């Protein structure tokens, strides 16, 4: 122990002799370890750590599929859910979930609340205990049960100011009193963040006799919990056997040519599915940054050791044990690494909330991203490994005592092995920097193309808002009539040009997929061979408001929604696939096996209805007259003035028609587009930031090593200049030596990129990962900066008078 204390004391004195180099080592490690610790904390909590629910490893999402028509994770009906629940023996819980909108009245303006509708044992399955009151009890999800509400923690805090006496309060929801029975603790929201939770009878759709009895009325997502002695394979097999019996018993509802199967996915896997590729990419990038930092630190330690070569030779000559000297060097390296690791941990702590906010774009598990013991262990392990490896590299370099002593007070020239090792480390830094910077450049190019992608419609000056089915609209027909009257009322305002409405906003994945359609005069298309086609339910003027070009025929008209039902538009992609050799105008399609027919009135240009990053798919547009389901109404308002000057006027106009109607999310269509891309843009910013960090670390290493090499050869440079050598030739000599290492590193990095590109391609949009022109541009940029880093210290050395350089020796 006393020896260790002496080593630490001596190390401190050694650090004071070279503060600049030591500060550079600590800073480099702090940035490298800090970036890795921060990303590791997110990856560990989201992708590795167990779910924050008791027995979370047994929680599953039950995906119901129609494999013969490539339909995965479809919703199921209430009767189907009951069959699965009652006939399975491997799940201790099988619960339903769907989201709806409730309108809260009596608390200021009507408010639309995101509502999770669940089975009574949903929270029992998760083993979530309320902080106030209770959750649902058996029987409270049966038809006729009294309407009850469990508040989410965030809504209780924001809406009711964390009122401890909220239990028993009656809230007016959709013109019906609901009693608050409990408040949930803060928890990972899944599938989405909800304001309140209710059981089936509270939902007017789920609680209707139609939903309860109609097997074709699909609206539920299923979750379950495996029994302690069961497994995913056993439970899946059992549910699939139940599905086979359903196909045999109800062939009209579950057609044989569509299939019906079930896949059980661990809930942890499901909750982390969207975030995995992105977080692994960031982890890989930061790992490369850390490797560059480690190579840089190893090089700097070699420089420190080389500068102390004479000191170590004298100590050995006086009888010091070489192992004792090696241990001292190793101690100093570990101390520097631990200091860098400590600063890195501080960086990770301060960036935790920032990265948790970033993770929230991908998964509700972001609420669990907290600094815990795993981050401390990560920083400690990485620091120790870095310190030991870089220290050992320097500590066990061969030292020749006689040669070191002969060099006297002159420059201490490093051994050939040390020089070769430093060159290898520089090559490693260049190759890793090339990989990081090229990856970041490709991601940035991908994001540029994504942000500038033509969506097929004009989103400028479009105000967007949404309304859930109102409390006073008793039927779907009344709800659609209200939407039409609202649009007409708004169009009378001078600041508004046109108003359209739809069941979903463009650039979202809310369009309804078709399970069957038939073209008149042709045999039904085999379900297993039919391409995907989407149905968009819109007002007749939808395409004019969004300035979507008409290619053939005519647009929809108001008369199509009233006196001439059955009119539709198709997009260009639909026409190319299904009417390639004929004129599609006035052709008819059926969605119900020929019972009713819809006539094609026009062909419009393709748009990116499903998302900016999803290519146009075959789509047809129908009016609300053919749509018989409850749905949200999305208003699209083309205005003549900015949003902030008209939002209140829009809300007032809606409330003039229906004072109880909640209006949600008044924004612009451009903002919705930007928000849909915000996650991708954040990834790009993080990747770019890490790439800049990696390049800065690599360049600092280049500058440091070149400056050291130049300082060791100042006498040689002085002699060369004194004998008449051209300074430019001398600078070129150093440049060739340095740039050859850079070229080798870039070549190795490009070779590695060939193998990395398939993985990188998964996160790129319309951008080739194996992009030779981009490799050339990146390599050229790195070479230019490297040349500057090499030539600056060389130029300073050659500018010194030869007599001064010789006297310094």
Automatic annotation (TrEMBL):
Record-level GO cellular component terms: plasma membrane
Domain MacB-like periplasmic core stretches: 23-240, 453-641
GO molecular function term, any single one: transmembrane transporter activity
Secretion signal span: none
Family named by the database record: Belongs to the ABC-4 integral membrane protein family.
Matching NCBIfam families: ADOP (TIGR03434)
The protein's name: ABC transporter permease
Species annotation: Thalassomonas actiniarum
Taxon lineage: Bacteria, Pseudomonadati, Pseudomonadota, Gammaproteobacteria, Alteromonadales
């Amino acid at each position: 122990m006393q020896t260790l204390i002496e080593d630490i004391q001596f190390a401190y004195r050694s650090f004071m002799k070279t503060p600049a180099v030591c500060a550079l080592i600590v800073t480099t490690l702090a940035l490298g370890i800090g970036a890795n610790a921060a990303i590791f904390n997110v990856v560990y909590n989201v992708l590795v750590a167990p779910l924050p629910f008791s027995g979370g490893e047994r929680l599953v999402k039950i995906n119901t599929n129609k494999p013969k028509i490539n339909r995965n994770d479809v919703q199921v009906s209430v009767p189907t859910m009951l069959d699965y629940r009652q006939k399975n023996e491997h799940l201790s819980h099988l619960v339903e979930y769907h989201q709806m909108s409730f309108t809260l009245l009596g608390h200021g303006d009507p408010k639309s609340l995101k509502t999770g509708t669940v089975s009574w044992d949903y929270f029992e399955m998760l083993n979530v205990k309320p902080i106030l009151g209770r959750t649902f009890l058996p029987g409270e999800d049966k038809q006729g049960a009294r309407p009850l509400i469990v508040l989410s923690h965030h809504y209780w805090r924001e809406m009711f100011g964390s009122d401890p006496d909220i239990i028993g309060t009656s809230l007016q929801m959709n013109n019906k009193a609901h009693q608050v029975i409990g408040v949930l603790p803060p928890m990972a929201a899944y599938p989405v963040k909800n304001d309140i939770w209710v059981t089936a009878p509270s939902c007017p759709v789920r609680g209707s006799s139609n939903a309860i009895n109609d097997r074709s009325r699909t609206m539920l997502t299923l979750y379950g919990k495996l029994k302690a002695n069961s497994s995913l394979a056993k439970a899946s097999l059992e549910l699939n056997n139940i599905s086979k019996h359903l196909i045999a018993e109800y062939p009209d509802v579950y057609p044989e040519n569509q299939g019906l199967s079930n896949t059980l996915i661990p809930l942890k896997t499901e909750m982390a599915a969207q975030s995995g590729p992105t977080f692994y990419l960031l982890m890989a990038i930061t790992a490369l940054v850390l490797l560059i930092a480690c190579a840089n630190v190893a090089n700097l330690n070699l420089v420190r050791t080389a500068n102390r070569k004479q000191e170590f030779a004298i100590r050995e000559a006086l009888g010091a044990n070489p192992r004792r000297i090696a241990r001292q060097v190793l101690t100093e390296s570990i101390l520097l690494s631990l200091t860098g690791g400590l600063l890195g941990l501080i960086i990770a702590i301060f960036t935790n909330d920032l990265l948790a906010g970033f993770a929230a774009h991908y998964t509700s598990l972001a609420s669990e991203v907290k600094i815990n013991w795993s981050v401390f262990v990560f920083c400690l392990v990485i620091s120790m490994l870095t310190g030991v490896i870089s220290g050992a590299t320097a500590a066990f370099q061969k030292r020749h005592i006689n040669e070191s002593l002969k060099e006297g007070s002159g420059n201490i020239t490093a051994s050939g092995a040390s020089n070769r090792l430093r060159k290898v480390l520089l090559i490693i830094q260049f190759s890793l920097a090339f990989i990081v910077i090229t990856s970041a450049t490709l991601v940035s190019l991908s994001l540029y193309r994504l942000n500038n992608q033509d969506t097929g419609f004009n989103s400028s000056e479009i105000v967007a808002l949404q309304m859930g089915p109102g409390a006073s609209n008793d039927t779907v027909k009344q709800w659609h009539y209200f939407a039409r009257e609202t649009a007409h009322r708004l169009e009378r305002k001078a600041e508004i040009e046109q108003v359209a409405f739809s069941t979903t906003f463009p650039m979202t994945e809310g369009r309804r997929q078709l399970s069957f359609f038939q073209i008149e005069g042709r045999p039904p298309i085999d379900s297993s061979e039919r391409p995907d086609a989407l149905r968009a339910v819109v007002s007749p003027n939808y395409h004019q408001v969004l300035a979507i070009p008409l290619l053939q025929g005519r647009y929809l008209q108001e008369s199509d929604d009233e006196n001439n039902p059955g009119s539709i538009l198709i997009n260009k992609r639909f026409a190319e696939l299904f009417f390639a050799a004929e004129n599609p105008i006035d052709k008819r399609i059926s969605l119900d096996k020929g019972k009713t027919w819809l006539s094609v009135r026009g062909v419009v240009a393709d748009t990116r209805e499903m998302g900016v990053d999803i290519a146009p798919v075959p789509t047809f547009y129908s009016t609300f007259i053919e749509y018989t389901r409850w749905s949200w109404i999305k208003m699209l308002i083309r205005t003549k003035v900015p949003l902030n000057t008209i939002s209140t006027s829009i809300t007032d106009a809606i409330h003039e028609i229906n004072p109880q109607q909640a209006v949600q999310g008044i924004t612009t269509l451009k903002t919705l587009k930007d928000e849909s891309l915000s996650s991708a843009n954040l990834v790009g910013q993080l990747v770019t930031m890490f790439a800049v960090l990696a390049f800065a670390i690599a360049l600092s290493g280049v500058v440091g090593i070149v400056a050291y090499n130049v300082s060791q050869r100042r006498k040689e440079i002085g002699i060369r200049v004194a004998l008449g050598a051209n300074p430019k030739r001398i600078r070129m000599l150093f440049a060739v030596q340095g740039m050859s290492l850079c070229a080798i590193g870039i070549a190795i990095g490009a070779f590695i990129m060939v193998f990395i590109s398939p993985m990188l391609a998964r996160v790129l949009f319309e951008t080739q990962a194996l992009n030779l022109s981009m490799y050339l541009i990146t390599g050229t940029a790195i070479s230019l900066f490297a040349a500057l880093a090499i030539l600056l210290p060389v130029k300073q050395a050659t500018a010194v008078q030869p007599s001064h350089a010789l006297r310094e020796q």
